[in-house]
Structure formats: C-alpha cells, structure tokens
Amino acid sequence: MKPRTLLSLLFAAFATVASAQQALWGRPNVVSPQVNQDGSITFRSDMKGTDKLTVVGDFNQTSPEPLAMERGADGIWSATTRPLEPELYSYCYFTAEGKRLLDECNAYRNRDISTYSNIVIVSRERGDRGWLYSVNNVRHGNVAKVWYPSPTLKMNRRMTVYTPPQYDGKKRFPVLYLLHGSGGDENAWSELGRATQIIDNLIALGKVEPMIVVMPNGNPNCQAAPGEWGAGMYVPASDAIKTKPEATFVESFNDIVDYIDTHYRTIKKRSGRAVTGLSMGGGHTFGIALAYPELADYYGLMSAAPRWKGQYTTDKLYDQLNNDAEMNAAMRKLFDTKPQLYWIAIGRDDFLFRANADLRRFLDENHYPYTYVENDGGHIWRNWRIYLAQFAQLIFKH
Amino acid sequence: MKPRTLLSLLFAAFATVASAQQALWGRPNVVSPQVNQDGSITFRSDMKGTDKLTVVGDFNQTSPEPLAMERGADGIWSATTRPLEPELYSYCYFTAEGKRLLDECNAYRNRDISTYSNIVIVSRERGDRGWLYSVNNVRHGNVAKVWYPSPTLKMNRRMTVYTPPQYDGKKRFPVLYLLHGSGGDENAWSELGRATQIIDNLIALGKVEPMIVVMPNGNPNCQAAPGEWGAGMYVPASDAIKTKPEATFVESFNDIVDYIDTHYRTIKKRSGRAVTGLSMGGGHTFGIALAYPELADYYGLMSAAPRWKGQYTTDKLYDQLNNDAEMNAAMRKLFDTKPQLYWIAIGRDDFLFRANADLRRFLDENHYPYTYVENDGGHIWRNWRIYLAQFAQLIFKH
Across the interface, which of A11, A64, A312 has its CB nearest the CB of B379? Predict the structure, then answer.
C-alpha cells in the first residue's frame, strides 16, 4: 500500500475499485439522524468517554429541548423524539461535561456566525413546510456570488443572486431584495434561510411569480462574509464593523439596485421591486421605504428592529414616529405614494414585539394601511423561513 | 428575558446591544488554530472526558502526522507544530478512545465526500503557496451554481462557473474546464481545490490570463452534489451512481461546452479552451482529448486514471495503447492535430504512478510531444492545488 493521507479517501476508493462504493459512500455504521415514518427522529452517536449524552434541538417553536440519549449494549447512544411536524430542525449534542458536539454522522450542517449546528428535515407530503425547505425534484434556479462596486461605501462588495429557472432568453423578471440580520451576511438567507429552496419550490407549485432574489451583505464596513474578503480568514466581521463606515447600508442601497438593473433582465420599475429583511434587515427595509418611497411596491418587515439614519429606534419608536418631524414627514410621504404592500410579521415571543407594536399603533392612528402577521415563537430562523414563504406569495401579483 | 432558542444568537446580541459585539463575534475563549510568526501552528481545545487528545494533520507532504496535545493547568489542551512551509493544512483531533473530532474553535472546514476536516493556511508573503490559496485583497471573480440541460444524459445538471473580475462589458474570455475525481462533485474544485482563490490570485499577479473556469459534475448519473438535487438530502451520490447511466460523462461533455458557449462571452474556438482534471477527471480529460481532438488546445492530466469508453484502463494501459486499434488511432489523430499542450503531472507516491509511466512510455515511443511534471507525495488535494496553479500559467498564452 502507498502512503495514505488524511483526506485521500479517493485513494481508498480506487485501490479497491470494485468494492469501493460501500466503503467510500456507504452510510457510516452509525446512522444518524433517521427520520421515521411517523415524523419522529432517531439520533445516534458512537461517542465515547462520557457518561451522559444529550441531544438538544429546536423541536418546539419557542425553546430548545434537551433529550437524554441512552447507551445500548453495543455502546451506541440513541434517542428518539416524539412525532414532529414537517419542519427543518437544528440540533447538536452535549456531553456530561457540557462539551458541545456535532452529529458527525450528519454531513448537513449550518453555520450561524461561527457556530455550526446539524440540520434535519421532516416532510410528509409535497407542499408541506419540510418539503418547501428541501431540495426537491423540481427545476432549480442558479445561485451566484456576485461582486458589485459600491461607490457610496467605496469598496467592491459581495452579494448572493438567485435567478429563477425561467431566467433564460429575453423575458424580464421582478426582483426581491432580501436582507439579513445583525451578525449575518450575504450567505445567511441562502443557507440558514433556505431561500433558494423556498423560491424554487413555490415557483414549482405555481404559488409565486418567478423572480430574481438579491441577498446583499448589510454590514456597511464589510465587503463580504468572514473569510470571503481580504480582511483575512480568521478576522470576524466585527473587526471591520467596529471601524467607522463610509455611509449606512441604506444610503448605499441604490448601488445594489443600479448593479442589478444593469446586469440582469429586471422589471426596472416600482411594481417590479420588493424589499424585505429580518431583524436588522427589517430595520434596513424600514429605512429604505422611508428614504426611497417609490423604489419598491412591496415592503416586508420581519421581526424588524426599526432603524432611522443608521441608529436603532426600538426603545421609543412610537414617540419618535410622532415627534421626529423628518421621520414623521417621511412616513407620510411613503404612504402618500400608496405602496401595494407594507407588511409586518413578528412572533409573540420576539424581544422586538414591543417596538413593532409601537409601529403598528402609529400606523393605525394615521390610517396608514399595512398587513400584519403574528405567530408563535421568537427571534428565530424558523420564523423567518415561514415569513419569507408568506411574503413571497403576496408580491408581484398586481 | 424572553425564551432563547438554540440558534438565536441574534437575540443575545440585540438584548445587550451596546456590549454585544464581544460576546457575539469575539473569538471564543479558546483560540485555535493560531498561526505563529515562525510559521508554526498552535492548536488548542477545551475537550473534556478524555485522557489523551491528538491533533492529526497533513503537515508533511506524504503522510498524516499525529501530534500529542498536552493539558495545561487551566484544562486547555494544546500542541504546537514545528515551523511549517506556506501551505493549506487540514487537520482534526482524536480522543484517547479514537473518536474523531473537529476543532470547534475553527469555523473553517472542508467537506470531502461526507467527512469534514478543519483547514488552516500558513502564508509568509504575497505570492507564496499559502497566499495563493487565501482570499486576499485582490479583485474577485463571481462564482455561480448553474443548471444546464444535458440532452445526452437526459437531465438538468449543476456546475460551478467562475467568471473573472474582468468579465464585464464585451470582451470574450477563454474557458478552462476543470474536472473532479471519483467521489467528488461540482463543489470539489472550488472548495477543496481553492480553485477560485488560485485563479483570482494568479490573475492579480498577472501570471495567468483572465479566464472562465467551468467545474461540472463528472458523475453521469447525478444531477448535482449530494443534497443539491432531488435524490434527497441524505441519499449519497452512490445510490445514483449504481444505476446505469444514459451515457458516459465524456459523451455528454459537449452539452456543457454548448451551454457555456451560448451563455457566456467565450472565445469559441480551440485556442480558447483548456481541459484538465484530477484522478477520474484526469481520465475524463484523457478521454475528451481522444473523443474530440480539436475541441481544446490544452489538456492537463493530474494524477490521472486514464479511462477509455467509460472504463478505467490503468492496469494494462501500455498494452492497450499499442494493441487497441481504435484507441491507438485516436491517439494518433489527437497528436496529428498538434495540441498546444498535453501535460501530465503526478506525485512519486501516487498509486497511479505506474499507469502514468505506461502512458509516457507510449508517448515517448511514438514521439508524441508532452510536458511532464513529477513531484513528491501521492493522490492528494495538496498536489492538485499545486498542479492547477502550474497548469493555469501554461494555457491561453499563444
């Protein structure tokens, strides 16, 4: 045998080419996770050197749920959940000593900032929530990491651009601008948010218009996600964020729209544009609507942290909306232009519920029309995926 | 405090917005890996419940190298390598019980088939090998996941397409087709191979022509990488590979070239095309050169497993090249067309060294011109990154 390196599984495959398939691609001896017929999930691990192993997952809407694993006679730990609703679940393991571990049997994992969690999807039938988040046997759009110049922020910046399967030839398409939250980046919506799967699948179901989806980086002092720009592989975004930005993300937003309108076959008018975002991105959406009231016909605030002139205004939003003359006038101007949709979604347990209640109170008192969605749970990706699927079905229908 | 879910770090950030930066983005208490001034790397871990922890990495060219970690008074394990040459290194940890773990402090990791390893880059100066593999402060090309129709394989298929920073406006660009090995997919070269960094950086140094790089999926019964097509998230590629393909990848290759030539601003002639690949992809390159001798001017075989009509021929290649009349005639026809470059690269420890020696013996005896590169090491990504950087500098210069 020749020397074998850490990564040269290819070698192992090749040396025993006739029987290699099982060794190379076969599932590991420990199968985990296993989604059972009734929607329950069985987790397993061959972890050693600990007296206790716990799987912790977001199996209910509002809080993480620990589930003790039991070690069998074969030394394999396992635990099975109750039957679960169709959904994308995140989980990890904890040892007796409190050491957080991933399920090494599961190659599917998401990075949220610098923390990885495993993911697993439960789906019962076409069209359910788990199906919406899965890669199905439907036509898929293209997903590109695109660099664009931002004269406002004085740098080249990276964004994720989804073009629908129908994007070919001469037809023009509307554009959804989809904004991430604090700590996120241009990868957040396509990875944690399953945005490309959601849009692929909703197009396949005929429930949304084929659209371009643009997912920019909302951190005005970053060119791109950590590791994807010249700040260095191990420099977190915060090292850049701490320095003073040239301008706010909202001020730079037209750099993105200009690039998209000149490089893609877009519907270059208000009725062909929607903007939505989560948390800080909901705040950006709030600000974009005020700064450029005729840019888009559809605005969606998901668990929004309203921002005005680069600052969060969540503490005293109602007072500010009433008393800040410039902000008040901008709100009036926005609703004078009659956008097709001003949409607010938030979970009852969200720490930003109060700020959004302030916003609704102001809108109600001024008879500014909006659509409101309230559901269970808090400030979590599970809700943002739900909101995206809902919002996408409301836009570009006029 | 509201309920806090597993993934809602955003919430934590927000609740304590003034001081959140450190908690949210600050490096973990345990810093790992740490690249030191002299090029050594210090690894650390807060692993508990084991009496021994070992870091195993590819710190030399030919074999993985275990390094025992020591536990300090603070309970933190650590180990420091000797000073290392500029390079991208892969590593993982093993407990006393033989349990393989990742370095949870290092968010940078690569997936090879279903196995993750951490990665770390050592670089001393602009232009060295570590720098070539890093994301530097240079202009970046766009990277897209593109679906194309393959009439030959009767399916839509996914590929990775890199367009250089210069790709804008009306200029046309040459195309490098870059093929992965057995067990790989359309993500292999851009992730494990650092191909987009290598090409970005070599363009920035003025050492390669700006080029489009096309990285298709070479498994003819797969639409895409595992989890990226409708076969299901947990179905490995092998479940599809085991079924009979409609045709070989080589037979379907023109579907890719046709799509690229109609959707990108390419130089649509022989001098604007190069094909190279590793292992099985080297075999595909060997076959493409024989099947379509005037398609490209530049062919590169990296650690190639020569394939002919869908079958590996590595065991008796020299005899087959001489005795298979059709194969022999195809070789003659190829070299009669005088390709600009027929390039062979392999490591002295590669298990395919013998097959490539057979090929060279045949080429020598027939006075077919080729360029040969031989280096240390075996069938490993470290070599394929080196080969790509070398080959890219030889093409599109005529």
Answer: A11
Alpha carbon distances (Å) from B128 to B85, B135, B393: 9, 13, 15
Give the integer Cα–Cα distance in Å for B290 and A32.
Answer: 44
Contacts of A95 (CB under 8 A, 6+ apart): A47, A49, A50, A52, A53, A101, B48, B49
How far is A236 from B374, CA to CA, in rounded Å?
39
- Enter the pTM of the model: 0.91
Provide the pairing of β-strand B142-150 with A142-150: antiparallel
Residue A344, SS3 per DSSP: strand
> What is the ipTM score, two decimals?
0.90
Picking from B2, B50, B147, the nearest residue to A140 by CB comes out as: B147
Six-digit token string for B275: 């094909």
Nearest to B344 by CA among B274, B282, B254: B282
pLDDT tens for each residue of B43-57: 999 888 889 999 999
Q: Point out the residue among B135, B139, B181 whose CB comes nearest to the CB of A156.
A: B139
How close does chain B come to A222, measured CA to CA in Å?
12
Residues in B closer than 8 angstroms to A352, CB to CB, are 14
Distances (CA, A) of B313 to B248, B276, B299, B318: 15, 18, 18, 9
Residues of B in contact with A184 (CB under 8 A): 10
Token pair listed for A38: 């009734």
What's the pLDDT at B168? Answer: 86
- Yes or no, beta carbons of A49 and B95 under 8 Å apart: yes
Residue B25: pLDDT band with limits 50, 70, 90: very low
Convert the pLDDT of each residue in B102-126 to its tens digit.
Answer: 898 888 888 777 778 899 999 999 9
DSSP for B209-242, written as a single string: ---EEEE----TT-SSSTTSSTT-TT--HHHHHT
CA distances from B187 to A5, A160, A354 (A): 21, 17, 44
